[in-house]
Amino acid sequence: AYRVYKKTSGNGSLTLYLGRRDFVDHVDTVDPVDGVLKVDPAELGDRKVWVQLVCAFRYGRDDLDVIGLSFRKDIWIQQLQIYPPTGNSSPNTPMQEVLLKKAGDQGYPFIFHLPTNLPCSVTLQPGPEDTGKPCGVDFEVKAYIAKEADNPDEQVDKKDTCRLIIRKIQFAPDQTGVGPKSNISKQFMMSDKPVHLEASLEKEIFYHGDPVPIKIKINNETSKVVKKIKITVDQTTDVVLYSADKYTKNVLSEEFGETVEANSTFEKALSIIPILVNNKEKRGLALDGRLKEEDTNLASTTMLRPGMDKEVLGILVSYKIKINLMSSSPQCSGH
Question: Boundaries of each Arrestin C-terminal-like domain copy (predicted)?
Answer without folding.
Answer: 191-330
